[in-house]
Amino acid sequence: MQKLFSIALVLFCLAASSFGQVKVAPLPIKQRTLANGLRVVSVQDNSSPTVSIHLWYNVGGKNDPPGRSGFAHLFEHLMFKSTKNMPSEKMDRLTEDVGGFNNASTWPDFTNYFEVVPSNHLETLLWAESERMVNLNVDEANFLSERKVVQEEYRTRVLDPPYGRLYWYLDDITFQKHPYRRGVIGDLDQLEAATRADAEKFYKEYYRPDNAVMIVVGDFEQSQFDSWVDKYFGSIKKPADAIARVTEVEPEWATERRFEKFGPIVPFPATAIVYRAPKTTSPDIPALKLAASILAGGESSRLYMALVRNQQIAQEATLDLTLSTEGGRMAFIGIGAEKGTSQNLEASLLAELKKIQDIGVTAKELEKAKNQLISDTIRERETNDGKAVAIEAAVAYLNDPLAVNKDVAALEAVTAADIQRVMKQYFKDNNRVVIYYSQEKKAEGVK
Amino acid sequence: MKMKIQSSLYLVFLGALAFSVLGQIPEPGPAKSVNVPPVIETKLKNGLTVAVVEKHSSPVVTVQLVIRAGAGIEETKKAGLANFTADMLTKGTTSRTAEQIAEGMEFLGASIDTGAGWNSSSVSMTVTSDKLDQAMAIMSDVVLNPSFTQKELDLMKSQSLDELKSNLTQPSFLGSYVASAYSFDEHPAGGTPQSLEAMNRKDLLDFYKDAYDPARAVLIFTGDILPAKARTIANTFFGAWKPKPAERKEIIASMDKAPTTAAENVPVTSPLFKRIFVLDVPQSGQASVTYAKSINEGRVRFGSTPRPAVSINKSYYPALALNSVLGGGYSSRLNLEIRIKRGLSYGAGSNFSWRSDSSNFTTRTQTKNISAAEVAELVLAEIKKLTETPISNSELVPRKSVITGNFGRNLETSAGLAAAIADLYTFEIGTAELNKYVANVGVVTDDQIREFAKANLKGGDVIIVGDYSVFKDDLAKRFPNVKIDVVKVDELNIESPTLRRSDVP
């Protein structure tokens, strides 16, 4: 079975030559929608004998049932268990065992299932993805065992790392009404309360062709691919009932809110200052991404220079953008160094914010940030899977796979004035949540 | 199929949407194969080897400089020196400040990564091909002209100490930190609180002077670049790198571990494990459970002295296959038993960390504190099974595919390709090995794996890091006649023979 040896030998499919300015080559995207509502996006690229398959479902942490925080993610784990025609872990047999891999991830807005396999296995995986779209079994023993795995995942992500609880709080205490406040990982008690019946209901509600987009990039022949899609997905019926959507609307954050939180083992204090982000369809997103890069992209960035190098109060200083379709959050985070206190971290983070609001950014800084983000884009698209991930983001956040080919132009169009404007518009004294996080003898809040 | 499918009484068919057409799984089509493109190698006058692999599917180039000198040649008291030296390269040169270096690279949309492992030190960057010349000017400056100023050294010391202090609260980090001294008779390559505190400028200058020799280095180019252009660039930017005078070469050569002859495969009658060590971290969020065994088989074998020829150790590929069966990838035995069957962890795996003439074998997992002893038992049972029970072909063949699949995927990016080549140069293994890799994995037999396991895996240490008060009773119950060595995390001193602060001589 030593067949997967995937290095592009082909020298003629140059994205650009070694001379002159490189360009991000547009992805030649084909799209179609089946009668049952399944959207299929594909890019044929025969430069390496592999193929990446992504099944994107429009259901995420925000769709956790009431009292079942963490459920969408728990359900993601169940999708690797048995179906009518596949025993548990068959997806691993079809991927890992032939030299490929698979995984899945749950986000606030969506859940994705993906695999990369030698391209001669594409048809098999299309069959398998159609199978788990409609024929999943949830058996009690698998359910209980996987619930324990997810609880261990919670411990590994939240309880074990010294600042794991801080990141958990970024969702939990900032959003007031919108289900984004539950984060994705949930909490131990609500996971413990989840039942197999919940899983059955959730599957019926959200796992259906008209709530999914399939993205396939790699080594195939287009007409053959299309016929396999028809064969394995065409006969799935579109359910008549409407899909439940989140209706809660997060109220405007109108006053500053402040919290002090503690963990049992916290080596140095930390501070987070959280603001509400615009929806991902906002035309201001590219400017915010560039601003985040100017503030926190590398060792020449403003926050690193100020807090880590010059003042030496932080080990890490960042602006984390968690952008979501219904408006996510943007968090300045400072993890203290020996000289760091929650107070001096807050003051320095806010001083850098004020500087960019009052004075703006230089032309050179802006050009650097553009170079960084465009270079990241090119590197991400080195592999078939990287290309599929980029298309998936365009589907998830802009509801348009073709938007992937407009990313770079949107970044290039941003001006220094745009950056100053968005930093003033979205980062206000009265719409933030300030969290101080430090060591206390007794842990509180999260178990 | 190992997985036990539960009684059908519990199965609930959720396919309310009728789906009748397709009960049959389609067979895969014929497999395609592709070879790794050749590595084109030249040598500059100063002894620097230049290796190039063209791959033009994306307009990026990775450049990686590898120097065959790492943490393995530093003294225990100077733990972290190789890594510190590598990281300090980008913190100032005779003509550029640290800020200018970071600013210059980031303006090109790139960054320089530096670091040292046990066997080598490395400086690498990935940049779009149009900006390669500008990036090379900075990369060569940091390698050839570092200034190691006291001010930057002080800053890096305080940053490293803060980072280490955070890491020393985490069971996963602590498990391998303890194992390095307790089970492998080495030191942590990232340093200890004492060694970082004591690091001084002279140490760095000496290490740099001795180890950073073009004759011990290879400059690797992968991606969107023509071999002729790579040679020209290498000459322009690294041609001025001076080879070390002969006496300096002797110093570094004497620091290299003396080559050993092949380890004897004496039949091992040792017990399944040697010791149990507990590092007690009260209120820890989880416990990490590590099994650690030092192995007398290295990545390569040496011929006869004085400057021995190197060949790949015949045990290397059986060890890779063994690891894939036991703890490499999702469906390996450890993950199957600990996560998939019992829900005791988010993941479990194993790893060989290779040196020239030895290797460090570890299994790693994290679980809730109360399950720590149960998980330790499960890990030991899997070690035992490997030494006793044949592996069926239906298990072994897929596990080999995992290895070759990962290998192939890693070569898809320019950075992954450079890393694979760097690994071979680190051990002075010819790059032809890249094209033999898949075949060499393919011919590994079940017998070879079991022989390797029998000779090498038993007699290691179980290291548990977590809240001892929670698992103490269960551990005593499951391992009734074993003396358990417990050290409190506040008392830990990795440089002490007993690992206890109070026992420092």
Mean pLDDT of chain B: 90
Helix-strand pattern of chain A = EEEHHEEHHHHHEHEEHHEEHHHHHE
Strand content of chain B: 15-25%
Percentage of residues in helical conformation of chain A: 25-40%
The CATH H-level superfamily of the largest domain in chain B is Metalloenzyme, LuxS/M16 peptidase-like
Give a written overview of the molecule.
The complex is a heterodimer of chains A (447) and B (505). Chain A has 447 residues and is an alpha+beta fold. Chain A folds into 2 domains: 204 residues, 2-Layer Sandwich (Cytochrome Bc1 Complex, Chain A, domain 1), CATH 3.30.830; 183 residues, Metalloenzyme, LuxS/M16 peptidase-like (Cytochrome Bc1 Complex, Chain A, domain 1, 2-Layer Sandwich), CATH 3.30.830. Chain A has 15 helices and 11 strands. Chain A has a 6-stranded mixed beta sheet with strand order 1-2-6-3-5-4, sandwiched between helices. In chain A, strands 7-11-8-10-9 form a 5-stranded mixed beta sheet, with helices on both faces. In chain A, a hairpin with a 4-residue loop joins β4 and β5. Chain B folds into 2 domains: 216 residues, 2-Layer Sandwich (Cytochrome Bc1 Complex, Chain A, domain 1), CATH 3.30.830; 231 residues, Metalloenzyme, LuxS/M16 peptidase-like (Cytochrome Bc1 Complex, Chain A, domain 1, 2-Layer Sandwich), CATH 3.30.830. The longest helix of chain B has 18 residues. The N terminus of chain B is likely disordered. The interface between A and B is large, with 120 and 110 residues.
